[in-house]
Amino acid sequence: MEAQRHYNMPYSAYEKQKALNLLKQSTFEFAAHRYHCTVRSLYRWRRLYDGTLQSLCNKSSRPHTPHPNRHTDEEIKHIKDVMHRNPHIGLNELYGKLRLNYAYTRNPVSLYRFLRKNGYYEQVKRRTEYKPKPYQTPECLGEKWQMDVKKVPWECATIALPSDCDYYQYTVIDEASRERFIYPYREQCAESTVDFVCRAILYFRYKPLVIQTDNGQEFTFLRQIKNDKIHLFDKFCRKYKIEHKTIKPRTPRHNGKVERSHRNDNERFYKWLKFYSYDDLLLQMKSYLERSNNIPSSAIHPRGGRKCEWLTPRQKRAELLQLDYAVTE
Fold first, then answer.
1. 145-183 pLDDT tens trace
2. pTM of the entire structure?
3. In sequence order, what DSSP letters do the residues of 18-63 get, joined into one string?
4. What are the start-end ranges of the H helices in the chain?
5. d(CA 16, CA 36)
6. Taking a C-beta distance cutoff of 8 angstroms, is the pair 300, 316 a contact?
7. Residue 329 has pLDDT above 70, yes or no
8. Which residues pair with residue 263 across a beta bridge?
9. Residues in CB range of 16: below 8 A, 6 or more apart
10. What is the dihedral of CA 68, 70, 74, 77, to 10 degrees?
């Protein structure tokens, strides 16, 4: 066949017709091998075929005679009577009443299958596949940053470091150029967030209009705080006229660019990393930052050019700077 078929699916009428047409030029064994069926199936299809596709359509496989071990009419009447008097009864209680009052001897699974088949239990609805909404990526430098925190894997630390010492990687990415800035911290807190954003502004040499984060405690207060206390990072954003935007809880896909960059960090950096101290981690992370910003990506291509022309984040930033776009000073 042209494509490998699923063996648990029945043959369609079109497939049967193609197999029978092949029989005019070959043997039964060759056609059975080509279409992954038996020789007896080919004989049966040829006997049914009258020149039309309708004659090869699959018919119902439902048996003509009822199963000998099916529920009897009396048992069905007892089940319906109990369900009518107790419409919200559970399966266990229903099974107990039938055994106690009507000498019901069948397996509970058989009772459940009967109820589900007759519409007493709703079928479990399949979850619809998530379809992302169209997203307009910013085209100006500094229009929007995505920021997140990643814990440095403890496997990367050597034995010389204490086991209770954790390190965190703060990451910010400019959506327009995909250029990143990362920096390690010993503590995941609001003070570290403010310090990191200041370092990021010095690194990019411009401040953003919007910073998008999740609802972590290092970024914002998820619940209302007494006395209307304002988070330290929100104070910083208000002072420098930066809009702090938070994504919907438990939807990391809304911060997808920085989340994807963290996955790349695992594959390119942390999988091979061994550091001996905080200063060593800082030095290796600085070297990796320079490397990651010079890796071409299929998601970055020149404006008006072909999508196969991949650019690096640094090249994209240089292109956006040449275009007369307003960059917030």
1. 999 999 999 899 887 788 778 999 999 999 999 999 999
2. 0.63
3. HHHHHHTTS-HHHHHHHHT--HHHHHHHHHH-SSSGGGGSPPP---
4. 13-23, 28-35, 39-48, 73-85, 91-102, 108-117, 190-204, 232-239, 256-265, 278-292, 313-322
5. 11
6. yes
7. no
8. none
9. 45, 49, 56
10. -160
